[in-house]
Specification:
The protein is α/β, with parallel strands linked by helices. The protein folds into 2 domains: 8-192, 3-Layer(aba) Sandwich (Rossmann fold); 205-311, Pantoate--beta-alanine Ligase, Chain: A,domain 2 (2-Layer Sandwich), CATH 3.30.1300. The protein contains 13 helices and 9 strands. The chain has helices spanning 13-25, 41-53, 81-90, 101-104, 110-114, 116-119, 126-131, 136-139, 143-158, 170-183, 212-217, 219-235, 243-258, and strands at 8-10, 30-35, 56-61, 95-97, 162-166, 188-192, 267-276, 292-300, 303-311. The strands form 2 sheets. A 6-stranded parallel beta sheet has the order 1-4-3-2-5-6, with helices on both faces. Helix 9 (143-158) packs across helix 10 and helix 12 (219-235) packs antiparallel against helix 13. The longest helix has 17 residues, at 219-235. The radius of gyration is 20 Å and the shape is globular.
Length: 312
């Protein structure tokens, strides 16, 4: 397909590498924003952050099959490339990378072959295995293996100075940190704040599937996260700082808000948790100088939504 645009659109890996070679010779800094398309204001916020901090901003659009499990919405995932190109042109992106599936998924590509044991998690780290068993990892088997594969490939191909991700995918951001360590890459990963609709619903490509009634009901997730956050702050007033009290208090708070989801027939809560923001481990003891994150995931009909809020 031919797009009439001033932006550089690249599909072939060889062309991307040649472009990057020229940029590096000129001493240009490179910012990278990986996406699966059907862009919204959240993606634009990542692009704008990259443009402020780098000479060149590259945005990839690729719906990665390997991060979708059996029965998930790979085939139905919203796509509108022409619309996305217009948004990126308006955002004044320098390069749009539209990788060809036959290239990006080829494990025998010279660059990928060299790192295949890392890319395909032949000997995954203990930290990856731990993260892969909790929260979204537990609810979406194979998802983070797919994320690990595609982001590893993008990082190896582009080697950006900075890469930008949204806070909504907080657990994924922790996986990104592992990728950098495993590949020994000095890329700075930047987490950007969640962009929300006026009522509070986190911007998501999948929001397009929600009708006006479900959109209103979907606010229960964000409202619950905020309520839990406020309850955490009250917990600090207690003189009892023992682990037993911490566990009991955590479960009391969560049970109160989990029960609210039972009122809706077409909503299925997957998880609602309070975790240590540093490592996503469970909280056993509350400390005022610790940063917590409250995370939730649910399905409203067939639409899966995730969200989180940070409590400091």
């Amino acid at each position: 397909m031919i797009y009439i645009t001033l932006m550089k659109i690249i599909e072939k890996i060889s062309e991307l590498q040649e472009f990057l070679k020229v940029c590096r010779k000129k001493g240009k800094t490179i910012g990278f924003v990986p996406t699966m398309g059907f862009l919204h204001e959240g993606h634009s916020s990542l692009v704008n952050k990259s443009k402020k901090e780098n000479d060149i901003t590259i945005v990839s659009i690729y719906v990665n099959p390997s991060q979708f499990g059996v029965g998930e919405d790979l085939d139905k995932y919203p796509r509108d490339l022409e619309r996305d190109i217009k948004i990126l042109e308006k955002d004044k992106v320098d390069v749009v990378f539209l990788p060809l599936r036959e290239e990006i998924s080829n494990p025998n590509l010279k660059l990928f072959k060299k790192y295949k044991d890392i890319i395909y998690l032949k000997n995954p780290s203990k930290e990856f295995l731990r993260l892969n068993k909790i929260l979204c990892g537990a609810k979406r088997p194979g998802h983070f293996e797919g994320v690990f594969e595609i982001v590893s490939k993008f990082f190896l191909l582009i080697k950006p100075d900075r890469a930008y991700f949204g806070q909504k995918d907080f657990q994924q951001f922790k996986i990104i940190e592992i990728i950098k360590k495993e590949l020994n890459l000095s890329i700075k990963s930047v987490m950007c704040s969640i962009v929300r609709e006026k009522a509070g619903l986190a911007k998501s490509s999948r929001n397009v599937y929600l009708n006006k009634f479900d959109r209103k009901k979907a606010l229960i997730l964000y409202n619950s996260l905020c309520g839990i956050k406020n309850n955490i702050e009250y917990t600090f007033d207690s003189k009892d700082s023992s682990p037993a009290y911490g566990v009991r208090r955590r479960e009391e708070i969560l049970l109160k808000y989990r029960n609210n989801f039972l009122k809706f027939k077409n909503i299925k809560l997957e998880y609602l948790e309070i975790r240590d923001a540093k490592n996503l481990k469970n909280i056993r003891k509350y400390k005022e100088n610790r940063t917590y994150i409250v995370l939730g995931a649910m399905k409203i009909g067939n639409v899966r939504l995730i969200d989180n809020v940070v409590a400091k």
